[in-house]
Amino acid sequence: MSEILVVGSLAYDDVQTPFERRRSVLGGAASYFAFAATLYARVRMVGVVGEDFERSDVERLGRRGIDVDGIERKPGRSFRWFGRYAYDMSTAETLNTDLGVFGDWHPDVPDRLRDVPHVFLANIDPEIQLDVLDQMRSPRLVAMDTMNYWLEFKKPQVAKVMSRSHVVCINEAEARQFAQTFSIIRAAKEILALGPAALVIKRGEHGAMLFTRDGGAFWSPAYPMEKVQDPTGAGDAFAGGLVGHLASAGRSDSDELRRAVVHGTVAASFAVETFSVDGIEAASTDALEGRYRVLRSLVAIGAESLAAAAPPPPGR
Asked: What residue segments make up the domains of the chain, in order of their start?
C-alpha cells in the first residue's frame, strides 16, 4: 500500500454556527487530512500535542490505521482554535487562537519516515515546511497548503515552499492575495511559474479548480449537500482525498490530477456533514465511491464520459 507523510497541526476546536456550538472537539489540519487520506493509503503523521491532549484521541487516530508514532507530547497546552460561522457557512471568523506547544515546535522527522514517497505539508509556518523538506530524502510527490497569515508575513518563504512542491493547494482568496490580483488565471500563472506541476484552488461550496504547468485546466463542482453542519477542516479533508488518490494511483499525470480533484471534493463533503472529524472518520470506501460516481455524473457528457471515471479507491 502507498504511504503518505503528513506534517501539521493536531488541535482542539471550539466551533460556533448560527445553529449550534461545540467545545473542545478534535480538529487540526493533520487530523482532517489523515482521516481522509487513509481511505486511499497508509498515513504516517508528524505533529505535536500538549499535556492536555487526550490519549484517547491519539488512540482514535491509531484505530483508523494512522501511524501516530511521530506525534510528540510536550509540556504545555495543545493548539486550540475558536471560530464562528455566519449563516452562509462559507468563511470562519477566528475569535481566538492559542498555539500552545505548536508555537515553538520544530519537527524532527523520524529517520524511518524520511523515505516516505508522498508528503503533505499542511498549513504551518513555511520555515517549518522547508525544514521538513530538508529532512526528507527523495519524495516522489510533495503537496503543500498555506494560509493568508503566512502570505502576509512570510511570502518569500511560502514562495520557496511552492517552488519545491509538485502540487500547491490553496483557496481562492489566498491565490489572489499571493499574486496581488483579482484574476484567478493570472494568479495561477504566477504560482506555476515558481515550479510546481499543478495548482489546485479550493473554492468551498463552488468546488475546486485545477491548473497545470502545461496549460491545462479543470473545474469540479462541490458535491451537492442539503445540510452543512461544520465547514471546519473541509479544505484539509479535500487535500486528503486529493493526495490520497494520487498516492494510490502511483502517478500524477493530467488525467489523474483531474480525478484527484473530484476525489478531494467528495472527501470534503463528508467532513462538513458533522462537527469535528466525525464525518470524515465515519466515511467508508463504498460511500466515497458512491459520491464519486454521483459527482462525476454531474459533469459528464454522455455515457462514454462516465465510463472513463476512475476506479474506486482500494480498501485500507
From this structure: 3-307
